[in-house]
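Section 4.2 – Deliverable D4.2 (structural model, holo form)

The reporting period included a commitment to supply a predicted holo structure for the target in complex with magnesium ion. Inputs used:
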Amino acid sequence: MSSAPGANHAAQRLFFALWPNAKLQAALHLAGESLQKAFGGRVVRTENIHLTLAFLGSVPAERADELRGIGSSITVERFQLKLTETGCWKRSAVGWIAPESLPEPLKDLMLDLRSRLLAAGFRVDDKPFAPHVTLLRKAKCRPQPAGEQIPLEWRVDHFTLMRSDTLPDGPQYSQVGTWPLS
Ligand code: ATP
Ligand code: MG
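Output (structure tokens):
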């Protein structure tokens, strides 16, 4: 029997993320268009907008179940993010929006994930966690004119494990697992 392209054999590019609902993704896309006036670049497609919790890189397909196990072992309370801060990182050429503060449950979620991933032998990047939602790619970072930003409220009640495929017209993300927060 032949396998469909993308079937579960080769390695997959995976990451844990917070995934906004479609309504918030649309609002974030608008915020991206407004940020584009300051930094140029390309606005991330609405359906691709997310916040990365832990990037795993390439993972053998047979380890996906282990990652689902790690996802189900997390017990963290739901929380709210107030997205108020915008900015631009020159090194990665991304324009972003970020929460005004790091709520304790988000910190716990990220720390629990990282420690369980490390204990299971996954490689996770050890850069300090800077939660942000990328809105612009190929941004030209420069001083941002002061402007009012309407804060976006995000009630976070679940997190996801995502697979990333690079297609000719850009990345495509598909959900591999999802877990509710308590
Ligand atoms: P593409 O690389 O196909 O242009 P992308 O960067 O959105 O698109 P991925 O590289 O698969 O897709 O990354 C998925 C998520 O993980 C994105 O939010 C990305 O910013 C983040 N990410 C990618 N590489 C790293 C890394 N080395 N450390 C931390 N986060 C990363
Ligand atoms: Mg990338």
